[in-house]
Design brief:
EC 4.2.3.4, alpha/beta, about 350 residues, metal ion binding, zinc, single chain, globular, DHQ_synth_AroB
Length: about 350
């Protein structure tokens, strides 16, 4: 597959990943190569990756963090920064983030801030990270239970998409990534949406091209608006309520935490309903989107009490301006509208629609 060029870097695919990575290392001759993994990618991805990494005499240090969104924290960052210092990292070192979105988000932030910035490379191993987290240069960590409250936008030196890593991914993680692909169709390409919602099953043999197409959609948006001043906001469709739901289920000990894509799927249904109230989205489109998402995602019980706490979390959304909550909604499939304002009553109606 042909490499995708972003504003500042390239995204390579499958066998090209290793030839390009090894050439980069040979040319740059870093002082030390650091590889950040989590407990899962340490076992399932690191051996395969190291077999294909050609470092010559350059020393390699592997740093392992716990897996899971609950560990995308400042405490873990401090641990990684301290490990870099302990192993004598300097500004000529590089950090390779081998993992899902938590690893690439946190690792990119660590690299962007250590010694005011060292080179980093993302090798995403989950579907979610391949189509979303590793593309566009957003790095960061959560603050308490609040998603991505601290971070910077800074693209790595390259991104390597090796879809063979998906072979070991659990089905729920595959489904989580699929939510972002559905979102890309809804905000940009009705035909892509149609293709995704008419797959008989999520088959790895179909995925390479679908992943490629999803990355192209996101990259087309990011290259036009790298700092999220306007157009890039459309990538947040489903995320205003989705992030609040994800944060609530993560922090509430009585709830089973939701994967990112599971929460975003709920957020997309809720925000599609809001689109009918604010942007004139047709009822037919609402039902098509609702049924398309629920082909893959199971419904989750959200009580009236839950809704109060979720709505309270909306005030922390990064798109807010002057204490006004701003939504990305749809005028039609493939036609998003940014900076939409909705009422609390309309949000509660959306929850009723989802529940019923």
């Amino acid at each position: 597959m042909k490499a995708i060029r972003t504003n500042n870097t390239n995204i390579f695919f499958n066998s090209d990943v290793y030839s390009e990575l090894n050439q980069f290392i040979q040319e740059k001759q870093p002082s030390i190569i650091f590889i950040l993994v989590d407990t899962n990618t340490h076992d399932y991805c690191l051996p395969q990756f190291q077999q294909r990494l050609e470092s010559g005499d350059i020393p390699i240090e592997v740093m392992e963090m716990p897996d899971g969104e609950e560990h995308k924290t400042l405490d873990i960052c401090i641990g990684v920064w301290e490990a870099l210092s302990e192993y004598n990292a300097d500004r000529q070192s590089i950090l390779i983030n081998l993992g899902g979105g938590v690893v690439t988000d946190l690792g990119g932030f660590v690299a962007s801030t250590f010694m005011r910035g060292i080179t980093y490379i993302n090798i995403p191993t989950s579907l979610l990270a391949m189509v979303d987290a590793s593309v566009g240069g957003k790095t960061g960590i959560d603050l308490g239970g609040l998603k991505n409250q601290v971070g910077v936008i800074n693209e790595g030196a390259m991104v390597g998409i090796d879809t063979s890593f998906l072979d070991s991914l659990p089905r729920n993680e595959m489904v989580s990534g699929f939510a972002e692909m559905l979102k890309h169709g809804l905000i940009s390409d009705k035909n892509y949406w149609y293709t995704l919602t008419h797959l008989e099953q999520l088959d790895l043999s179909d995925l390479d091209q679908l992943i490629y197409d999803s990355i192209v959609i996101k990259n087309n948006v990011v290259t036009k608006d790298p700092k999220e001043k306007g157009l890039r906001k459309i990538l947040n469709f489903g995320h205003t309520l989705g992030h609040a739901i994800e944060s609530y289920f993560l922090e509430n000990g009585d709830k089973t935490p939701l994967l990112h894509g599971e929460a975003i799927a709920i957020g997309m249904i809720l925000e599609t309903y809001l689109s009918t109230k604010v942007c004139g989205l047709s009822h037919e489109a609402l039902e098509e989107i609702n049924s398309g998402i629920l082909k893959t995602f199971s419904k989750v019980e959200i009580t009236k009490e839950d809704q109060k706490y979720i709505m309270d979390l909306l005030r922390y959304d990064k798109k807010n301006s002057h204490s006004v909550i701003k939504f990305v909604l749809l005028e039609a499939i493939g036609q998003p509208k940014i900076d939409c304002v909705v009422t609390n009553e309309q949000i509660l109606e959306a929850f009723d629609y989802y529940s019923n």
